[in-house]
Design brief:
Strands 3-2-1-4-5-7-6 form a seven-stranded mixed beta sheet, with helices on both faces. The chain is an alpha/beta fold. The chain has seven helices and seven strands; from the N terminus they run ααβαβαββαβααββ. The chain has a single domain, classed as Rossmann fold (3-Layer(aba) Sandwich), CATH 3.40.50.
Length: 201
């Protein structure tokens, strides 16, 4: 996946402009930034969500992505407004209890080990910190068909999850107050945002 998205980095924002913008705006509408100081975006890509969040909210922001080329594109957008780090969701290179909020948009279907990733997200969250995960929603027949095609044709694709499966992943990782909201971008894209809180770990 690192090589695939490294190759796409130069054209990613242009090629997926409408989807990225709509998914980021929709995700931020479902995230409460009140009282949040430290934010981590897992799979930050070219930094679109971080760019919007840093302009709207004071705080310390970090982004993580596997692709160095994606991070370079994000760095051009963000300058010094966010710290950007190369790494995997399954082994987050951050100390424990470092963040108040961890977000991720349109990357869950790429994660090879979501169980490890959610355990890592919980580890880096402060007690009662929040997580917000937006991704394609497998409750939709069209999304499941897209998932079948991509599993055969796209090596970087993992799998699409249904809303009940995302809720279970969060609960099994020890999160509480799990909520899943399903929403759409036009007729093509069915998405979901899962939000939850870390316990007093």
């Amino acid at each position: 996946m690192r090589h695939r998205y490294g190759h796409l980095a130069r054209e990613y924002d242009r090629r997926w402009a409408r989807y990225v913008e709509a998914s980021v705006v929709g995700s931020l509408r479902r995230i409460d930034l009140a009282g949040v100081r430290d934010v981590l975006d897992v799979g930050c890509g070219t930094g679109t969500l971080l760019e919007r969040a840093t302009r709207a909210h004071p705080g310390r922001f970090a982004g993580l992505d596997l692709s160095l080329e994606m991070l370079e594109a994000a760095r051009r957008k963000l300058g010094a407004r966010a710290g950007l780090v190369a790494g995997s969701a399954a082994t987050l290179p951050f100390r424990s209890r470092a963040f108040d909020l961890v977000v991720s948009t349109s990357t869950l279907h790429h994660w090879r080990d979501p169980v490890a990733a959610f355990a890592e997200i919980r580890r880096v969250l402060r007690p009662r910190g929040r997580v917000a995960i937006t991704d394609w929603c497998g409750d939709s027949l069209l999304t499941r068909l897209r998932d079948r095609v991509l599993r055969r044709l796209e090596p970087a694709h993992g799998r699409v999850w249904r809303s009940v499966e995302l809720a279970a992943l969060l609960a099994d990782a020890g999160f509480t107050d799990v909520r899943i909201e399903r929403w759409r971008i036009g007729v093509r894209w069915s998405l979901m945002t899962g939000t939850a809180r870390a316990g007093h770990n």
